Amino acid sequence: MDIRELVLQQLRTVLDPELGINVVDLGLIYDLQISDGNIYILMTLTTPGCPLHDSIVGGVKRALEQIDGIRDVKVDVTWNPPWTPERMSEEALRQLGHF
Amino acid sequence: MIPTNTAYETNIRLPLLFIVFGAITFAASQAVTLTAGLAMINGAFRLPSVWTAAHLAILGFALMVAMGAMYQLVPVAFLTPIWSERLGFAQFFITAAGMTLFSASLAFHARAALFPGLLLVLGIVLFLLQMAMTLRKQANKNIMTLFVSTALVCLLLTILFGLTLVFHFWSGTQTMDHLLALKTHILFGVFGWFPLLIIGFSYKMVPMFALAHGFSMKPARYVYVTYVTGLAVTFVSFLQNSQATFAAGAGLLFIAFALFVYHISLMLRKRMKKRLDRPFQFALFAIAAALILHGAALVLSYVGDDRHIAIVVYSYLLGWIMLSIIGYLYKIVPFLWWTHRYSKKIGKENVPTLKQMMNENWTTVQCALFIVSAAGVTIALAISSLPLFYIAQGAMTLFSLLFAGTIISVLRK
After folding, report:
1. ipTM reported for the complex surpasses 0.85
2. DSSP secondary structure letters along A40-93
């Protein structure tokens, strides 16, 4: 499997515990860079001051560190641009009761 | 996209201490209320057993839980860490001891309530200091800051007038008109501190729990200005002993609350989460109940007597303040315990979602029991029916035990 696909698959195991939806389908991942066994993630959360900030961000880091051959994972959080519902996948919308 | 790694979380033991203490005290308050039935049915609310029940419920439960919730919510909602967690723990033990001794004094020897009252006041003053120092550090202040800061000012006024009342009992002298002090104490406590706090944090929690985006926060300014003016006008009506000014104050408070309900409905129209969690639905139901009770207070400000207004105040405490707190607690407690147990495991192994931390059907049954009991107690007081009071208050006592059990059972997951 392509390393990028493997990383995304691993990211899909990290759920927002309030919504029960993974961080990829929620559209929280803004940027993903992989080079020489190092991963860089730029992500956001659905709202600044999310009480689950540390849990979700830490979960992303821990999930990626479990991939074989990964040396270092760096996760940054940004509020600019802020998250909008348009970033969610159809699967996320379905889980929220839209279809 | 500039990274801004900022996270603000409090040691969860601090809010949990307040909340568990509050849940246990709530059960005690309801049991004491059961014993005060005969007096309450006859409209005698100014009796030792009623004072004890009221202060156990309002201070022991609602105030302690509100303080605990603030230790958790202020850092995340205002992106500002708590000034001193060590002070938070000291403040908990001082306030809990003061509250317990103060409530016991009211029941057995009201004149001796001054010294435990001072201990309680010390605990609350330390809390006010903690919050003032924390909010001072907030980088970008917003309308929520204004609501919460004004709520804290109301809390300060509540304890100042409460202390005045206790001093009157202790000294046998009056530093000001006793009834004026009592009415002001109730106004700033029941209609100032709690509603402003709940409204302020609702502006954070409603969008968060409903996943609402793209709404305007502009109506919040009008809610704030109208509500605070309503409080001030009502206070002036007590000073003037004017029925017309009292009605104007009640009218402004009703308009402010109607604006708040309208604003919340605008937020909910923009929600992405179509099916809202049941405990959150009950917190929303409490908002609707409060609007009806503000309407009732407005009508009674023209045609009612003190007894009817006392019943509305009691219903307001149960149907709005208590129900809001209970609804939000069913969301906050699982979150706190989840953070403690599973926060470091997410990403490494499968962890439960927050919803799986508490049986939602069971919380629904409990909230329904609370609403039916609260309505029963209100009707019993209104029609002076002692049998109905005992049945409804018995059900409320059962609820309080189930509630305390449910909160404590989450901590075993």
Report:
1. yes
2. EEEE--SSTT-TTHHHHHHHHHHHHHTSTT--EEEEEE--SSPP-GGGS-HHHH
